[in-house]
Amino acid sequence: MVVAIVVLQVAMLISVFWLRAMVVSVKTSLPQRAGPVPVPQATGTTTAHGTQPDNSGIVRLPGIATGNVRPGLLKVPNISDKLAQVVTLNEEAQVFLKQNDYPSALDMLIHAEDLDPRNPTTLKNLAETYNLTNNPVRSKIYWQRLVDLGPGVGTIYGVARDHVLLANSGHDSSPLKEASPLDRILYVDSVEKTPVETKNGDPQFHLRAVIMRKDPKMQNFDQKKLQPYVIFYQQMSDGSLVPDLGQRKGAFDDTFLFWGEKKTEAFGVDYVMPVPGSPGPNNTTQGEYYGYVIGLYYDKVLQDVRSEPSDLGTRMALPREIE
User: Fold this and answer.
1) DSSP assignment, residue 153?
2) Euclidean distance between the first and final Cα of the chain, in Å?
3) Would 307 disulfide with which of 137, 210, 212, 313, CB 3.0-4.6 Å?
4) How far is the C-alpha of 97 from the C-alpha of 149, rounded, in Å?
5) Model pLDDT for residues 48-96, shown as the tens digit of each residue
6) For residues 92, 98, 103 and 107, what is the CA-based torsion angle, rounded to 10 degrees?
7) How far apart are the C-alpha atoms of 216 and 129, rounded to whole Å?
């Protein structure tokens, strides 16, 4: 009996590593698109400088190396710094939210708002917390304040704008109701980007995206058909936007995609900031970091797009279908 149990445990351990190998990769290389559709370019001076065509003439971006990457702990600045206090208060509010202690969370967030009434993270957390307390009026106020700050706040701007539009239309806020021309069965629920920090001598940030399924029990889901892409862009001295050809480390947070009753699955990518003017991969010259585009494909059909700045996903449009 003891021998049988030991054999069973060994078999289970081997199966975990086998399943980990089956989990799909997070990539920055676009596979060949379906049909003779030209590679989209941004308007004006935007070029595909630095890309490498294959024998078919399709321009491909670099693949991403996968691994067990986790975002590192953020450096805690001096508590006397106003920004540090705001960050700490937002973190404490998240702890209270996980305990369903909404009044305490609101106390922390309102204090953070008093310190910096234009902090995007605070405004977003206040909007979401008031929504959890069934106060859509105040929730809309904070989403509107984010919209008023403009696209400069990053990804949050697009989310806030969609929430305001949904509130004005009289419908409940839901990511599935965001305006989209795509017939989504999966979508990107949220995107988070850490502040730039220097690690091992390199300034970098961690980008994390959360995927949700329209139907949590989605029949016949095949994880091998799930293809997320993260494409980082640099702006050159002439104003053109080019895809970053450097290798990036990315991975899903968990071994098992949508395992059991899980409704979400997150993946992350570490990005090392380029040094403008320095040599890049394949005899290129690096530009200044500009933004990113996240594309989510399932069964070779585009499901959802997120980008920062919010209009970059339109300017550098992804194909609806890929091969």
Assistant:
1) G
2) 51
3) 313
4) 25
5) 333 444 444 443 433 333 333 333 333 334 444 788 899 999 999 999 9
6) 10
7) 24
DSSP state of 282: G
Please name the amino acid found at residue 318.
L
Both structure tokens of 27: 């990539």
Residue for token digits 């080019």? 242
Collect all residues with Cβ–Cβ distance below 8 Å to 253 and sequence separation of at least 6.
70, 265, 266, 267, 268
Tokens 């990113």 sit on residue: 292
- Three-state secondary structure call for residue 150: coil
145-159 in b/e burial notation, b at 16+ Cβ within 10 A?
bbbeeeeebbbbbbb
CA distance 55 to 72: 40
Q: Residue with structure tokens 């991969």?
A: 281
CA distance 172 to 178: 11
Q: What is the pLDDT of residues 245-287, one digit of tens each?
A: 776 777 887 766 776 667 788 888 999 999 999 988 878 899 9
Give strand ranges (E) for 96-240. 186-193, 197-199, 202-213, 226-235
